[in-house]
Design brief:
The relative contact order is 0.05. It is built from 13 helices and 7 strands. Helix content is about 50%, strand content about 5%. By secondary structure, the protein is mainly alpha-helical. Helix 1 crosses helix 2 and helix 3 crosses helix 4.
Length: about 425
């Protein structure tokens, strides 16, 4: 990307960057088939042992190099002061950059490229390894030195344009062989990963990255990169999925060629069975519901009820609250015990159980946070005594202002027709007078 300027003193702008190339990717290397030697098991074990020892020595030397950098940072702090050793260490590490200025075409390189190509194409027999530019550089240097500047420019004029096109072809043209595309992607991603990890170590910047294939014939597996656990935690909280699963879904979208909208999982609010869908999964309860029945605003019969609920949420009287881990475990255990008692059949309550006042029930509800109880179905009693329902429904997730638990599990049944199941036969047509 080059920076241009229209007029002296005018506004500078960036020219359009070339991102793709229409040129066909052509082979530019000439490889001679090598004679491979098949190793025995003992030789393979010895080679693996040598690799391990070499890796250990390399890691030791790498650690020593890092200690040298720390020592240099300590020297800078002692000499200049004002900052910590970590500051000077990061300043040292920030010196290298990934992007470098683009080199122009060197005419010596053009001359060397053309001469090596001419020698290899002219006199080289079939099957003989081709000459390398490094082997012929000293020989061709003498010929290059005898040429004048005008002769050098004239000789390399056409080759310079070919070299520029060759660079563009290598950088932007599409890979036609799946193996080459895979190796290109693998090496590029390794370089990017090293630079991103170094960037995170220097500056603390968090990066999350995905890379997937776009053709079914490619070999690249779904790739994701995260600099710390914050990225994976974010995707889990925001999308309720892992980065690996999201990368797999992204690959499926790219490979399938779908162009329409990809709709994810819809977020729903459950009013019926609130305890089973919301509280048991997320530990969220509703406090001080203003109406006698917990239901969706779309199911409310009057506008006044909707306004009451909206005002209660705006003023903070009604709210959804998340239980602590201890309260959530206690709630789940009590819910399980209540469900077990319901499955085992009806049981007799002590005579003194029904004589408790509403104030006692409120105190118990306040102490047990969201303990599942068998509350009344909808309306609280006005005489000061709350009568428990005969069949426990275990809601325990929604309460009114007085602390009473609202039954959100039951649903009003439609009245059965009086003539249900009776065959009425065909209707008789009345004669028109």
């Amino acid at each position: 990307m080059t920076r241009t300027q229209d007029k002296p003193g005018g506004i500078s702008r960036y020219s359009t960057r070339t991102k793709v190339s229409v040129k066909t990717r052509l082979p530019w290397r000439h490889r001679t088939r090598r004679t491979t030697v098949k190793r025995t098991s003992a030789q393979k074990k010895l080679l693996a042992k040598q690799h391990r020892e070499n890796k250990e020595r390399y890691n030791t030397a790498l650690e020593a190099s890092f200690q040298v950098l720390i020592g240099e940072a300590r020297k800078l702090r002692e000499e200049f002061g004002g900052h910590s050793e970590q500051y000077y260490l990061e300043d040292i590490l920030q010196r290298p950059r990934v992007s470098h200025s683009r080199r122009g075409v060197n005419r010596w390189n053009v001359f060397l490229r053309e001469e090596v190509k001419r020698i290899n194409d002219a006199d080289l027999p079939e099957g003989v390894p081709r000459h390398k530019s490094s082997a012929l550089a000293s020989q061709l240097k003498a010929k290059w030195a005898t040429m004048t500047t005008e002769e050098q420019i004239e000789y390399t004029e056409d080759g310079a344009m070919e070299l520029l096109e060759h660079r563009e072809m290598k950088k932007f043209s599409v890979q036609t062989v799946p193996t080459h595309a895979f190796q290109d992607a693998r090496k590029s991603l390794e370089t990017i990963e090293r630079e991103i990890i170094a960037l995170h170590a220097r500056t603390g910047v968090e990066v999350a990255m995905f890379a997937v294939r776009t053709k079914i014939g490619d070999y690249l597996q779904p790739y994701n990169l995260k600099t710390s656990s914050r990225a994976s935690d974010f995707f889990h909280l925001a999308f309720n999925t892992t980065m690996n699963e999201l990368a797999a879904r992204f690959e499926a979208y790219c490979v399938s060629g779908a162009q329409g909208q990809c709709v994810g999982q819809q977020v729903r609010m459950f009013y019926k069975d609130f305890d089973r869908h919301i509280t048991s999964k997320y530990g969220v309860v509703c406090r001080s519901w203003p109406l006698p029945q917990f239901q969706s605003p779309a199911d409310m019969s009057t506008k006044n009820e909707v306004e009451i609920v909206m005002h209660a949420f705006k003023t903070g009287v009604t709210s959804f609250q998340r239980l602590s881990d201890a309260d959530w475990r206690a709630w789940s255990e009590a819910r399980f015990q209540a469900a077990l008692e319901e499955q085992m059949g009806p049981h007799h309550q002590p005579e003194g159980e029904e004589s408790r006042t509403s104030g006692d029930r409120d105190v118990e509800m306040e102490n047990s946070t969201s303990r599942p109880q068998a509350g009344p179905s909808i309306t609280p009693a006005t005489g000061g005594v709350l009568q428990p329902s005969q069949v426990p429904n275990i809601p325990g997730a929604v309460s009114t202002n007085s602390g009473m638990v609202i039954n959100v599990a039951s649903q009003k049944q439609r009245k059965k027709r009086s003539d249900a199941g009776i065959s009425r036969g065909p209707r008789k047509k009345s004669s028109v007078q």
